[in-house]
Amino acid sequence: MTVLQKPMPVVVRLNRTKPHWQELQVSFAMDVRWSELPWFPGAWRCDAKDYDDSLRSQCSALNKSYALRFQEAASLVPPLLLEVKSTDLLLDLCAAPGSKTLECIELMREESDSLEGVVIANDADAERCFELLPLITRKARHPGCAVVLGNGAKYPAQFWGPGDQLLQPGLVRG
């Protein structure tokens, strides 16, 4: 119970696709309140007790400019395990609030500037989806992004209607 009552650390992920992100990396490295996650370059952790109003204000401003993103350490893992490539087609069926989706887009952009990859961000909740849409379009600035409102358990069958077809090698469904 003692562990569960302890406040979680603040974790931020630097956007390594932004210009001058290395300068921000150096700033975090020089601040003794932050420690870099050894398994994720550009992700930093700060104990909740050290996260004062001044630091909160600075991080908030950096988040608004999309220089960094607040994200729990556990949610950093899935995109790393996917080993996202710049030409991938990625379907995120439970995308809101969008941190992992944005991380995947950043990983695509880090690998190549080709912008060939496609990310479809789906969520079943309309309110969360409407919050996701401006986040993805404004922050990601990736032409291959789409935000979809729908039940992930029924995807893509819910979009098949009269005259619609899903074409795959050896499969035509209409």
TrEMBL record:
<keyword id="KW-0808">Transferase</keyword>
<feature type="binding site">
    <location>
        <position position="123"/>
    </location>
    <ligand>
        <name>S-adenosyl-L-methionine</name>
    </ligand>
</feature>
<dbReference type="InterPro" id="IPR023267">
    <property type="entry name" value="RCMT"/>
</dbReference>
<dbReference type="InterPro" id="IPR001678">
    <property type="entry name" value="MeTrfase_RsmB-F_NOP2_dom"/>
</dbReference>
<dbReference type="Pfam" id="PF01189">
    <property type="entry name" value="Methyltr_RsmB-F"/>
</dbReference>
<keyword id="KW-0694">RNA-binding</keyword>
<dbReference type="InterPro" id="IPR049560">
    <property type="entry name" value="MeTrfase_RsmB-F_NOP2_cat"/>
</dbReference>
<dbReference type="InterPro" id="IPR029063">
    <property type="entry name" value="SAM-dependent_MTases_sf"/>
</dbReference>
<keyword id="KW-0949">S-adenosyl-L-methionine</keyword>
<keyword id="KW-0489">Methyltransferase</keyword>
<feature type="domain" description="SAM-dependent MTase RsmB/NOP-type">
    <location>
        <begin position="1"/>
        <end position="174"/>
    </location>
</feature>
<feature type="binding site">
    <location>
        <begin position="94"/>
        <end position="100"/>
    </location>
    <ligand>
        <name>S-adenosyl-L-methionine</name>
    </ligand>
</feature>
<comment type="similarity">
    <text>Belongs to the class I-like SAM-binding methyltransferase superfamily. RsmB/NOP family.</text>
</comment>
<protein>
    <recommendedName>
        <fullName>SAM-dependent MTase RsmB/NOP-type domain-containing protein</fullName>
    </recommendedName>
</protein>
